[in-house]
Design brief:
Length: 647
């Protein structure tokens, strides 16, 4: 079976395209996973095919990335509007990172919104590969009525809902065709010495030879050919499918690519798991593409026996042998990590490019019923195994369930799955940033701990001095006690008490960056104890903190924002509006047309940053964050946080 992924921006026409491709030679079989990944099996040219239809939402990029792991090639389906080319940037980025041979299909040519040339130029801004135009549209007035193939030099007239009719190249197209063909040949000649020679000698190379070169350069992932059409009218569909049939590599190329990335032998790689989901009463279903020969239920795969093999759509058992390249579903194979490269005895982590964008949105999920707390955390852990855009952790302080998701749509889908499949209803709320407090001046105290309860008493007397430490220095403890006023063996107890006092300061928050010095004290030969000095240390420091003008400290994060360069300018005002500090931006060396923008942002602004970034970049920009340091916060904003913590 040959397998390709169709991916691209939302509403580009991907699902329509898959449907039309699959229908070219009759029946097809389609299934859709709960995560929106469509899987269509069909026959074309006496071969079995599987098309993976990746959901178009940027929040579901992980599923598109993982579909590429199982694909011999991919089709990037885009709009004919040059201004929308940027929407394809995240897909070009993952396609190029993955090394998957790609064909661009400019869809919706029935409603062009600009010149095809401009669409390609705009896409080229985000592609390191040369985009190679393989067809030019034939226009009548402002309508596109057909296309002309630049290799075979044949023209087709589109017919509604049918395969196009072969026609003569219209005379007014001939000149444009020659120019475009010359350009195509020149680009191809960069990858073929024979062709270069032919062109230099001014000879006209035969179509067959050019087709052979274009197949090779696609297989070797050197260029990205561009075809055009209109999926919903079945225009350009046959050409696209034929290009895939003749030019896309077979599964051995994928196997070699994945094996090389994982540093294992080709022959050791017998499959790749690329998608999984949970269903009620069924458990985990894993989609696998077989890359070796002879896999079947009970085969040793990743160190354990492969569970029942099923049809991905119907869930019915599959009796036929699994052939190399086949895509199948399996249940009761919970030992298979997803995604992963599968050898009989082991599973190897997939290449780094499969890592989805860092989730930007953080939410606390609270079960509507308290009884569901454990179930919620168990269920989320399970879901995170199959949903790689999801990260699950616990909120500091409260221990509440914290989820990091790709965005609002992802969050909604997650809550829906929790309710419908696992019967856990939840409410979500934003987490509050983790605040701290510190002191702004020194203070000295004298504290005496004394208790007389029945038999033995407690006595400890300490003189303490506290001072602000440098930012980031944390807690420190010193002593200048003379003459054994506080015996050596009790000093660690004073320090332990002082540390305990840092857990909650006068503002009700954890105290940071404070130095404590024990300067003097007194003890009693019978009643003094470690316990008493610990209590004295704690209470003494607590009193000292109360006099040392506590200030609120807010967390500051270092964020790395990934955006197409055209948006970089709009980020400065966004970062400034959050009282953030722009650190600068650089070209992203790993993806053409992208910048990495670095800034320091208060924790309280991260949620808003995610929102603003989404709207400023049409949902394309993402960021990752790392805690950097704490910084004082004063004024009304600080007062509001302090009173919220006090209540
Ligand atoms: N005019 C026109 N409309 C099209 C064409 N192809 C698809 N459409 C329409 O565009 C809409 C979206 O098509 P889909 O195939 O669902 O798009 P998609 O890319 O799968 O969308 P998502 O999965 O939501 O990302 C539908 O209403 C289609 O009928 C086309 O070539 N021309
Ligand atoms: Mg779709």
């Amino acid at each position: 079976m040959r397998c390709f992924t169709v991916l691209g921006p939302s509403q580009a026409g991907k699902s329509t395209l898959v449907e039309k491709l699959a229908a070219l030679e009759g029946a097809s079989k389609k299934s859709i996973s709960p995560y929106g990944l469509g899987l269509t099996e069909f026959e074309f040219g006496n071969e079995a095919w599987c098309a993976l239809d990746a959901p178009g939402s940027g929040e579901a990029l992980a599923h598109a990335q993982h579909a590429l792991l199982a694909s011999d090639a991919c089709i990037l389906c885009v709009s004919p509007n040059p201004e929308e080319a940027v929407l394809a940037a995240p897909y070009l980025r993952v396609i190029e990172a993955s090394g998957t041979p790609c064909i661009v299909f400019v869809n919706r040519m029935d409603e062009p919104r600009g010149r095809l040339r401009d669409v390609i130029a705009s896409l080229q801004d985000f592609a390191s590969h040369t985009l190679l135009l393989r067809q030019i549209p034939i226009r009548e007035g402002d309508k596109i009525v057909g296309s002309c193939d630049l290799i075979s030099e044949r023209a087709w007239r589109y017919r509604e809902g049918q395969i196009s009719a072969l026609v003569e190249i219209p005379t007014d197209v001939v000149e444009r065709e020659h120019e475009a063909r010359a350009e195509l040949l020149e680009s191809l000649s960069e990858f073929d010495d024979w062709l270069l020679e032919e062109l230099i000698e001014d000879r006209e190379p035969a179509s067959d030879a050019i087709y052979a070169i274009s197949s090779r350069v696609l297989r070797e992932n050197r260029i990205i050919p561009v075809l055009v059409g209109a999926a919903s009218h079945s225009n350009g569909i046959m050409r696209l499918m034929k290009a895939l049939r003749h030019e896309a590599p077979q599964s051995d190329v994928l196997r070699a690519r994945l094996a090389a990335a994982a540093n294992i032998k080709d022959t050791a790689l017998v499959g790749v798991s690329f998608h999984a989901y949970h269903r009620q009463n069924v458990g985990k279903t894993v989609l696998v593409r077989s890359l070796g020969d002879g896999l079947k239920q009970g085969s040793l795969l990743a160190g354990s026996r492969l569970g029942p093999v099923q049809d991905p759509g119907t869930g019915k058992p599959v009796a036929a042998a699994i052939l190399p390249g086949d895509v199948f579903a399996t249940v009761k194979s919970d030992h298979l990590p997803v995604p992963s490269l599968l050898a009989p005895d082991t599973a190897v982590a997939p290449p780094a490019w499969t890592t989805p964008p860092t989730p930007m949105l953080e939410r606390i999920l609270v079960p509507d019923s308290e009884r569901d707390e454990t179930k919620l955390s168990e269920t989320l852990a399970k879901l995170a195994e199959t949903d790689h855009g999801l990260k699950v952790m616990q909120e500091e302080g409260t221990g509440a369930q914290l989820v990091c998701v790709q965005g609002p749509v992802h969050l909604r889908d997650l809550c829906k799955t929790l309710a419908e499949v696992f019967h856990v209803n939840v409410t979500d709320r934003p987490p509050s940033p983790v605040y701290r407090e510190t002191i702004s001046k020194t203070s000295d105290v004298h504290y005496r701990h004394r208790k007389q309860t029945g038999g033995a008493g407690q006595f400890a007397d300490v003189k303490l001095s506290i001072h602000p430490n440098e930012r980031g220095e944390g807690f420190s403890f010193g002593e200048t006690v003379k003459g054994g006023a506080v015996p050596r063996n009790f000093i660690p107890a004073v320090e332990a008490g002082a540390r305990e006092a840092m857990e909650k300061g006068p503002l009700g928050l954890r105290v940071i960056d404070v130095g404590v010095t024990l300067t003097d004290g007194q003890h009693h030969s019978v009643d003094s104890s470690e316990f008493a000095f610990r209590a004295a240390g704690k209470m003494g420091v607590r009193d000292a903190l109360a006099q040392a003008s506590a200030v609120l400290m807010q967390p500051i994060f270092r964020v790395e924002i990934h955006i197409p360069s055209i948006y970089s300018g709009s980020l400065v005002p966004i970062v400034s509006s959050f009282k953030g500090q722009v650190l600068g931006f650089d070209r992203d060396e790993t993806a053409k047309g992208w910048d990495v923008f670095r800034a320091l942002i208060p924790g309280s602004a991260l949620d808003e940053l995610a929102r603003s970034l989404r709207s400023a970049t049409q949902g394309i920009g993402t960021f990752s964050k790392n805690f950097d340091h704490f910084e004082e916060l004063y004024g009304k904003e600080a007062d509001a946080i302090i009173s919220a913590h006090a209540s």
